[in-house]
Amino acid sequence: MSTSKTLLLGEATSSIVVLALAAVLLATVAGAAAAGDEPHTSTTANLTLHNLCPFPVWPLVTANAGLPGIPVDDDGEPVGRLAGNGEGLATLSFPSGAWSGRVTARTGCQAAEEDNGGGSTRGARCATGESPPVTVAQVSVGGPGGLAAYSVSLVDGFNVAVVVTPHGFAQGRRCPALGCAVDLCGARAPREGCGAGASSAAAFKQVCPDTRTNATDVEATPQDCVAPREIKVVFCPTQD
Fold first, then answer.
1. From residue 231, how far is each of 16, 217, 228 by CA, in Å?
2. pTM value?
3. 210 with 154: CB under 8 angstroms?
4. Domains parsed from the chain with CATH numbers
């Protein structure tokens, strides 16, 4: 199979995972409403992004279809360049109500001028490209009583190690850190990525059991997270 077909397959499968996560949250909300439980409400205030990689990243935060985007800055994106080695840190506010979306780490980005026919404009151009092997953090908040769900998907492959960690959650709930702190590409540059496609899924799962590697996969560690005040996405976390 050609590389382009493999990438398209990875994108399609990743979309299934994202839609499945959203469907589970929405079904839970509907069930709670029918049973007379608490209505859904967004009790999660912040999404924090922290870059511990030895190189800068340009996070891309994308809301699922039909949902409002995270408030943006002057560049039209929630956050721009995050410097490496722990210096890059950004705290964003979730929109009110139920929200779900995905976070990816782009690399090798720089501003590029282009002529759109009406004058020169500036836009981001990233070495990561449009559809590379990429690690995806998926987040849903605002379920019944503050229900939150999150995961790290390697369905599209791997480019940067990512771990998602909730903070300030309801007492007694299971809100573990989930994801992968291991550099699965080894010596390869993060902009290249690796492992898009089913052939790498078993190897990824063995090394990082708390990730999702196909459309029906779940983490080895269960979660039952309610009302976290913050969900933190860490790029290149330490392996302890």
1. 23, 22, 7
2. 0.75
3. no
4. 46-235 (2.60.110.10)
**Phi, psi angle pair for 120, to nearest 5°:** -80, 135
Instruction: Please give the Cα distance from 97 to 43 (Å, whole number).
Output: 8
> Dihedrals φ, ψ of 83, to 5°?
-60, 155
How far apart are alpha carbons 89 and 126 in whole angstroms?
Answer: 20
- Structure token digits, residue 218: 């779940």
Residue located via tokens 């902009």: 191
Kindly report the backbone phi and psi dihedral angles of residue 10, in degrees, each rounded to the nearest multiple of 5, phi listed first. Answer: -60, -40
Q: Taking the chain (240 residues) in consecutive chunks of 10 residues, what is each chunk's mean pLDDT?
A: 38 45 42 39 77 92 90 61 93 90 88 46 58 88 89 93 92 91 78 74 92 93 92 90
Q: How many residues does the chain have?
A: 240
Q: What φ, ψ does residue 229 adopt, rounded to 5°?
A: -80, -20
Task: Give the pair of three-digit tokens for residue 117.
Answer: 């026919």
Contact 225, 41 (CB under 8 A): no
Give the contacts of 171 (CB within 8 A, at least 6 positions apart). Answer: none
Cα dihedral 101, 104, 109, 110, rounded to 10, equals 20
The DSSP line for the chain is --HHHHHHHHHHHHHHHHHHHHHHHHHHHHHHHHHT-PPB-----EEEEEE-SSS-BEEEEEEPTTSPPPP--TTSSS---B-TTTTEEEEEEPPSS-EEEEEEEE-SEEEEEEE-SSSEEEEEEETT-SS-S--EEEEEE--BTTEEEEEEE-TT-BSS-EEEEEESPPTT-B---EEE-S-TTTTS-TTT-B--SGGGHHHHHHH-TTSB-STT---SS--BEE--SEEEEEES----
